[in-house]
Amino acid sequence: MIQASLNGPFSKDDHPAVPVTSAELAADARACAAAGARGFHVHPRSASGAETLEHTVLDQVVRAVKAAQPHPVGVGSGAWIAGDVLRRFEFVSQWTQPDFASVNLAEEGAVALIRRLTERGIAVEAGVWTVGDAEFLVANDLSPSLLRVLIEPVELDLTVALEIVAEIHGVLDRGRVEVPRLQHGDGEATWVLLEDAARRGVDTRIGFEDTFHLPDGRVAESNAELVRAAVAIVGEP
Q: Which of 13, 17, 87, 101 could serve as a FRET partner for 176 with CA atoms 20 to 30 Å apart?
């Protein structure tokens, strides 16, 4: 499965094709689904253009993206978006539309947030950035509550990226974590970790949140072009 991460924290100042509004995200998701994406990760924006977890905005954006194509739509829950952990918890407690949400295990309040999302009927992707995060997941027996584990080391250079993800997989294997895994990278590690995910036979992710560049270094014109490049590596869905 290829998940498309359509915008992340970026704006049109970073790339003119970054989708920001609900209409843009819906249209982009439709194009990416046609290109081979089978899941979506979006970062809704307020009227000012700032990332938000506020339920009326987030639910409206997710509803629009779900209406545009047939595949699941999820959101991030990064604590930096809400400003503090308690405010984030209050926002999440009012969500109704996401099919799933990612929760970064490195952030304060992650376990409580996983429980609240589960109570809301929203599936959870656990974001594992480090070997320590993987050990935390195993030690707290979180896997029964999860849709999948996101193996997503951030801002790694190529000399250590494959080594780190191999260590993370090893911790999860020894801990008998059997839920699906989705592996992706960002920046210069994006395509290396996507190719490694393909070799491992696990799900992966691509989109402007992770990179603006195609495997050959050219700037992609769209998220759909990135998805097509990923399909060429992973195979047809």
A: 101
Residue 86 tokens read as 């308690």
What are the structural domains, with CATH classification, of the chain? 2-234 (3.20.20.70)
140-191 tens-digit pLDDT: 999 999 999 999 998 777 778 899 999 999 999 999 999 999 999 999 899 9
- d(CA 161, CA 135) in angstroms, rounded, equals 18
| Contact between 55 and 94 (Cβ < 8 Å) | yes
How many residues are given for the chain?
A: 237
106, 85 Cβ separation under 8 angstroms: no
Are the CB atoms for 72 and 94 separated by under 8 Å? no
Do 57 and 48 form a contact (C-beta atoms < 8 A)? no
Query: Cα(199)–Cα(213) distance, rounded to whole angstroms?
Result: 21
Using one digit for the tens of pLDDT, what is the confidence trace for 37-48? 999 999 999 988
CB 53 within 8 A of CB 91: yes
